[in-house]
Design a protein that fits this description.
Elements (H helix, E strand, L loop, with lengths): L19 E8 L2 E5 L2 H14 L28 H15 L3 E11 L4 E10 L5 E8 L1
């Protein structure tokens, strides 16, 4: 008789072996190691959202280029445009991530954007959240 086994990502099978590095970059050995796919996906997503295009040397198209949006006219009216930019950038680079919700809070007086991104990763149960401030 066939059984359905739980989806398990093989890279998470050894809890003592780091999968990658995360944020902040001030751990005991300069980098903060991540031990699960969930932690590494979150670190990769933060890195992508905080990177501008043409910032990476051998990969100039990498990055969401969100800092360029700070110099646009910030208001709650055009926050939908920023939401579309974020969703499109994540869909292009991270096909296994489904964006659930984005809450954007612009502060035009200080040219600052606060946004909360709620997302779900395919094959992983649960929803994660990222809070980012762009100045």
């Amino acid at each position: 008789m066939a059984q359905i086994l739980a989806n398990k990502i093989p890279i998470d099978s050894n809890p003592r072996k780091a999968v990658g590095y995360g944020f902040p970059l001030n751990g005991n050995a300069v980098f903060t190691p991540t031990y699960t796919t969930r932690e590494q996906t979150k670190a990769n997503l933060i890195n992508f959202l905080l990177t501008n295009t043409n910032e990476r040397v051998f990969n100039p198209s990498y990055g969401a280029n969100l800092r360029a949006q700070i110099y646009e006219v910030l208001s709650t009216d055009n926050s939908g445009d920023l939401e579309d930019i974020i969703i499109q950038a994540i869909n292009e680079r991270f096909p296994n991530i489904e964006v659930r919700e984005i809450n954007i809070t612009p502060q035009p007086d200080t040219n600052t954007l606060f946004f909360t991104l709620t997302y779900e990763v395919a094959l992983l149960s649960g929803v994660d959240e990222i809070n980012i401030e762009l100045t």
